[in-house]
Amino acid sequence: MASLLDPSARGRVILVGAGPGDPGLLTVRAVEALRQADVLVHDGLVDRRVLDLAPRAHRISVAKTRSKHTVPQDAINALIIAHVKTGAIVVRLKGGDPFIFGRGGEEVEAVRAAGLPVEVIPGISAALGAAAEFNLPLTHRDWSSAVSFVAGQCKGLSEQDWSGLAGKGRTLVIYMGVATCPDIADKLMADGVTPDMPVAVLERGTLDGSRALRTLLADLGPMVEREQVKSPAIIIVGEVVLLADAQDRLVGWAKAAEALA
């Protein structure tokens, strides 16, 4: 692997995980890459303070919103490759970690197919950053020995096989699930998860205005609507939610939590 500090290492792509938002959670290697970038191709949710760590780079936003891609993925791939072929160091800056619901795998494949060098610098995924902020352990010897990550925006949600991903002794982390949370709750309960399973919604994790809201699975959809939760937010289902520093948003929560404990 070429050193980021080697000025002769030109014409390559570096996929960098920008973490969950707080610039303090970037890795040292990520900061090095940003400082050396000639071209910065970045997601829309990346904090401006992170972008400012690449002062010499030409910035290109390829922001995406739900069900609307400002720049299609194929066009992003072509954009990256075109700039690398000029000899530029191109940093593809992605929220969270490039390989967790970040399409990093697709971009690596495209760059490799073009015969160009590529490096991936991992980032703290949104779930890990938000969970840590609110002292919510995703695994715990007494509560959960397994954790799964799923995308709540996936096509054909009702046809997805989520059986066994949530329940006693397990933790389920759902990305991009705010808009579909009523369907998510219905699906999990239909697959056998108890309606009184604790669930937390972690909104704007590690950013200003972040909050953690806690309720029970049957109340997930109504709570998100009552509290006007907006993306970005992570949904966590499992008994580990009982340990979080979260605001209870269900009447009778204490009684329900006591029964579970």
From TrEMBL:
Q: Please give the pathway this protein is involved in.
A: Porphyrin-containing compound metabolism; siroheme biosynthesis; precorrin-2 from uroporphyrinogen III: step 1/1
List the Gene Ontology MF annotations in alphabetical order.
uroporphyrin-III C-methyltransferase activity
* Enzyme Commission number(s) of this protein: 2.1.1.107
Xref: InterPro entries: 4pyrrol_Mease (IPR000878), 4pyrrol_Methylase_sf (IPR035996), 4pyrrole_Mease_sub1 (IPR014777), 4pyrrole_Mease_sub2 (IPR014776), CobA/CysG_C (IPR006366), Siro_Cobalamin_biosynth (IPR050161), Uropor_MeTrfase_CS (IPR003043)
Q: Which residues form the Tetrapyrrole methylase domain?
A: 12-220
The record's Gene3D superfamilies line, in alphabetical order, gives:
Cobalt-precorrin-4 Transmethylase, Domain 1, Methyltransferase, Cobalt-precorrin-4 Transmethylase, Domain 2
Q: Does the keyword GTP-binding apply?
A: no
Q: Which SUPFAM superfamilies does its entry note?
A: Tetrapyrrole methylase
- GO biological process annotations for this chain's record? methylation
Task: Output the superkingdom of the source species.
Answer: Bacteria
- Kindly indicate whether the keyword S-adenosyl-L-methionine belongs to this entry: yes
Give UniProt keywords alphabetically. Answer: Methyltransferase, Porphyrin biosynthesis, S-adenosyl-L-methionine, Transferase
Q: Which family does it belong to?
A: Belongs to the precorrin methyltransferase family.
- The name of this protein is uroporphyrinogen-III C-methyltransferase
